[in-house]
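Hello support,

Our group uses your service weekly, and this is the first time we've seen a run hang past the timeout. The protein is DNA-binding CsgD family transcriptional regulator. I'm not sure whether the cause is the sequence or the server load. Input pasted verbatim:
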Amino acid sequence: MLQGRLEEIKTVETLLSDARSGVSGVLVIKGDPGVGKSALLDHAARAAGDAGVLRGAGVETEVELPFAALHLLLSPALDRLDALPAPQAAALRGAFGLAPMETADRFLVGLATLSLLAELAEDGPLLAVVDDGQWLDQASAAALAFASRRLRSEGVALLVATRDDQGGFPTTGLPELRLGGLDRDDAERLLGEGLAAHLREQVLTEADGNPLALIELSKAASGGELDLAGPLPLTDRLMNAFAGQIRRLAEPGGRILAVAAAEDTGALGVVLAAAAELGIPGEALEQAEVAGLVTVTGGDVRFRHPLLRSAAYQAVTSAQRRAIHAALAGAVSGDRRAWHLALAATGPDEHIAESLEESAERSGARLGFAAMATAYERSAQLSAEQSRMARRLAAAAMAAKEAGQSGRAAELSERATRLTDDPATFARLAEVRAAVAYDEGSPRRAARLLIDGAARVAETDPRTTARMLMAASPNIWAAGDPAMDTEAELLLDRIDLPAEDPLVALSRGLRLIYADDLEAGYPLLSDFLRRTPPATVPGRLMTAYPAFVAGRLDQALELCTALASDCRTEGRIRLLPFALNHLAYTQVIAGHHRDSHANAAEGLQIALDTGQPHLVVGLQGQLAWLAAAEGDAGRCRELAEAGLAFAESHRSPAVALLPAWSLAMLDLTEGRDQAALDRLQARPGGTSHFGTRIVPDEVEAAVRLGTPELARESVELAERWTALSGETWAAALLARCHALLQDSEEHFTRALELHRSAPQPYEQARTLLAYGEWLRRRRRKAEARPHLRQAHEAFERLGTRPWAERAAAELRASGEATLARRSAAPGTVLTAQELQVVRLAATGATNRDIAAHLLLSPRTIGQHLYKAFPKLGISSRTELARLDLDRL
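Update from on-call engineer: The timeout came from a worker crash unrelated to the input. Re-ran successfully.
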């Protein structure tokens, strides 16, 4: 039994018990060095019983080797890779260097990790423990974090131990258990007897309940080495205690320990070869082993504690460390040789720089972008020429961006920018820095960087210039900066490309639309959208956004659906939230609220996992709007206010559009018409489909306040937009606006006719409700009731409670004393994710197929179906065929 850890043991054993019952769980154990994290992991492994156990650890000297820790953890399970979906199996093989990497997205490795853990758990409960999480290489840490946030019903318990004071494993959103020091009684019991009273008290005071410190400081005290001269952090005291034990060895023993500490793999043969090169006898290692500082088993050298390894490395001089790395370089090959040579270097060395550059490319080929960035950065430091240094720093910046290390990417880009006068390199760096600025939610800075970068290559690379200016357009609008808009237009006029070039036309069309020059801009977008989009992710990406801006509902739905599917199929997980964001919003416009909620929720989780705060805010805005429509005021305000705060702090008024609209919707449903109108009329200028979609709510608020004239300017803009777009759904909304403004039955009937041509269940119900209210106020109650009844039924089906209640109140006022109780549509009792799973299952997809599609495990999919079938009144997949899935 661990001393003084009863509650912690109970927590761990509960996790194991849950895994035995098929419920997965994750626990991150945090604490200072020596506090007992590893001991708690050891206890978990012993308590696992007949459960499978996987063990892995971060290694300080392997933090720049991509997927090293993940390989260590999963290596016993590699014979099960063929059971995974082929893209996932290929991703893991590529990550571990077993085959060429076929994917371009590092997060697919995380999904494959989840699937492999779930596959192992098919044999019974599984415990996976990872020690020293602070030293996980970034690629392994990201993969494990991605998998851990998706563990649900697999029967997997994952324990990760990491230090409080260091990064490595991202713990945000995961359950944590912090280990503190032992209390006085437990500390005394662990210390035992044998020390003089005064030394015993000193050790208890200095150790402060840290178990490792109690053990090691008592050894130091027994040897007369306990130094109490001045305050030191506990870790430093432990390092001193370990250094004292090393100093007690004969001189060759300390040096061979330093060699072992500097060696990446702990391979005995490599340690002995390097020691021989340095003139250190191999027998010296036996001294350290006899002293209990290391163990030598199976051809590996292992230190008793990581701090002992650090102490051994620091115990020799810097010159001795360089000599050790030079000797180790002669005993290894490949990436390890390159890194040992780099650590042995005392100044610029182009040969070593080239070796590190090759190592960087190998890391990149395995999606180890953090390691790639580090190798390129060190290669730059060893470069003999400024131009090569700039090129390597630029490559490091791009790799850091791919690794999701935005701050590091920006810093490396800044350094490279100061060193280069090459326009093409400058432009590439500008795109990296702009992408970082966008991810962080600063469209103004993103636009500024893109314009400056485009200007540098305007004469030599007009196509890159046009592409960068196109990317700048939405950022300029989001920033609300007319001066930058003019600057971009003048630059676009300068480049040597014909006006009809697609990139030029698209860039100019977006700029004109955002400047409210619809008549000039919309035809350019229309021409671009008439082109057949390439059936590739980049092609669909380029087309989806303008389709979204133009409000081409059918085209946007088709493109975004295909784009999301492509991202899933090709493992482009980082791009998936972008596709889901656009898809979810387009589904809101189309009235597919439940689909929109499912896609927005999934996109939000992935955006959080992949570190894309700008998309996080956008997806939260979608969910805030849906919460307002459903009457969940608390959830709406929580999400919307976070978006408004983000928009204000990042000087991005356009980001506030969706959160403000959501709060206005809430105001409208709760009878605060003036507040709703104020919010809607404070929206930023510049138009798109947003203008047409928001105007009906603005009109309703203005009419209910008796001030219809306040909405006329917005209606005129919507008229221009609708006429140019030719979109039936937009014409239906505009007809409702005219009906409210002109008190016109003709426009109501026209709106309903248009709704029938372009179904939008929610908007059609809003029109039915407005028309029914209009008829009732004119005492035409019998005519009003069918419209109000249809509206009420539609709102009930959609789950938009406030609107259903309003329709019910109007029905009662029209003379319908009792409302027919409709049984809830089967789909309304399903969660958003259950609905997704059921729809995919109805296509004949297996649990494994559905799991790959939704980035979950097959066991979790099975659990969703287990819960969904009773809600739907069925007991098997075959019965799904009799359900009307379009109404779910």
